[in-house]
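subagent[fold] <- orchestrator: predict structure for attached chain, return tokens only, no commentary.
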Amino acid sequence: MIEKNNKKTIRSWAFFDWANSAYNLVITSTIFPAYYSAITSDKDDQTVDYVTFLGHKFVNSSLYSYAMAFAFLVIAIASPILSAIADTRGNKRIFMQMFTYLGGIACCLLYFFTLNTLQISIVFFILAAIGFWGSLVFYNSYLPEIATPDRQDGVSAKGFSYGYIGSVILQILCFIIVFFPGAFGIPDTPEGKALPARISFLLVGLWWMGFAQIPFRNLPKGSPNFKTAKSNIMTSGFKELQKVWKQVKTMKHLKRLLFAFFFYSMGVQTVMLMATIFGEKELHLPTEKLIATILLLQVIAIPGAMLMSYLAKNVFGNVKVLIGVVIIWIGCCVYGYFIHTEMQFYLLAAIVGLIMGGIQSLSRSTYSKFLPQESPDHTSYFSFYDVAEKVALVFGMFSFGYIEEITGSMRNSVVAIAVFFIIGLLFLLFVLKVEPKETKDVALQA
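subagent[fold] -> orchestrator:
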């Protein structure tokens, strides 16, 4: 039995965010998308940048979207099977390790990414995404096991805060290498100019795998569920999800929360994953300004996550805070369609930074609170949660890339994302009508 609210366990758990958030910042948000856009672009505003992958021709940014969508699809299919294995054998920590090493090694191999190695590098990019998101399936499932409901908002926010701090530290180091390559003996040649970004990818993999040893050493491996030991592992995960869905359908608050989460997650992660490429393609911002902006965005996200946690616990309650944040996201999407200057982009980035950590942290902890706390198997519930998020991201990333391809502008994709947020908002409003009394009481405790 895991001791809840143990400071050492919670700190070790949060360090996993510290370890893997470097991937989320450097690979998905700053240096990698800027580097990818730079090496696949001809720098001519009058032409469309195409790349060839597996014999097919794609708009460069659309291929990026499709690659991410495919990674999320793999996780959505694989995570139920893996969760079933982890539940049966009680070894969720081993699966966290497996995905961490997959993602970390793939990041290291991105060191070899050049235009000549585009094909295999896209594969490494997909594997890195699978490693990151796959590890979160098991990481998130620890939350209700290590913290009581009244502490879960704070613990969830602590994890995100650790992640932002750790990723910013590594980002600053990468930032120095990228913009002061001469200090590290990197020559000012075409090959040398690409080297700092590739070194950053290598550092992400090493940082991720290195700091992950802290949670791997201190987190419990999980408890085996012998009741499912004789079932078919390949199908039991999906049967477990079906079982969870049947239970969810009897809990109106949880069902509506999941629908809301599904739709606004399409928007949140898609905006965050495509922000850098949007700034480079639509506003033609130089790489150094994009990286500095995203770095500032991460710093702002730290107090943002803490603020949302405070407002949820002491002022409004979880659902009302989520409603307010989603409304702000809708405004950001509409505003994003009209921006044309650097200052407008910086203002938008500041707002997104303030709310992005809050909506992720609060979504996770709200879902955790809405779960039946007496259930011994939270992995299956969080597997369902993660599958819902990944399927949402498949739709979000694919639609973003597809709309750009057929309309010729990423701005139209941003507006389409606002529709997802609006649908999510409507479901959140319905959650207010059926939110369980015990959850409200917990959310409002001082």
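orchestrator: received. Logging for downstream: The first strand starts at residue 50 and ends at 53. The two ends are 27 Å apart (CA to CA).
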